[in-house]
Amino acid sequence: MSILITALDHKDRARWEQLFVEYCDFYGFDCSPAKRDTVWQWLFDLHHPLTAIAARDSDQQLVGFAHYQTMPLSLFGTETGYLADLYVDKAYRRQGIATQLHRAFIEHASQKGWSFVAWLTQEGNTQARSLYDKTAQMTDLRYYVQQIQSNLS
Question: Structurally, how many domains does the chain consist of?
Answer without folding.
Answer: 1
